[in-house]
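Backbone shape codes:
***
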Amino acid sequence: MVEALRTSACWLVYVSTDYVFDGRKGAPYDEQDAPHPISVYGRTKLEAEYRVLGYPRGLIVRPSTLFGPGRMNFCDRVAQAALAGITVEAFEDQATSPSFTEDVAETMHDLIVALAKGRPLTSRIYHVANTGGCTRLAFARRVVELLGCSPRCVRPVRMAALKLPARRPTSSILTTVALPPLIGRNLRSWEDALRGYLRQRYPVQGHMAESMR
């Protein structure tokens, strides 16, 4: 794609990942932090970032753990299991910034509009994730709570216990210093985004309606 656009005036916006970081910072990662991936997935994403940055009108967007309509994701897996009374496991030792795909898409639209209006770039890398972060376990428990299901549906587990084929960063929570000056806002919190998604995705009755407030 970069080579095909090399002689054009088009912008290229590449969607990368929070897995370009190793999770050892001990605080949320912003756009100025140096990447250090620990998996093949993260390394290939970072290599693609370098190629895009080699194009004068290339931008990088890094979201975090995505949830939303159209594709099975961790949020829906937890929700569907909880509503069916099935226990689901969630990592207690991996923290990310859960991000609603509709919020990410809207923000990418705002970013492109800002480019079209000729606003000066604050960066060529933008972290586009709902504000805040939590462990997978905390996220799953919040899903179950909002749906009014039993907290016993969620079982904590450590990553090492599942012998995953690829390493994951223990904490890849994202924050942004570059995005607000360009589009004039931050994304809403992951909890507000989650509440909004569950309202539109799942029936709300009785205790569920009460917990969605």
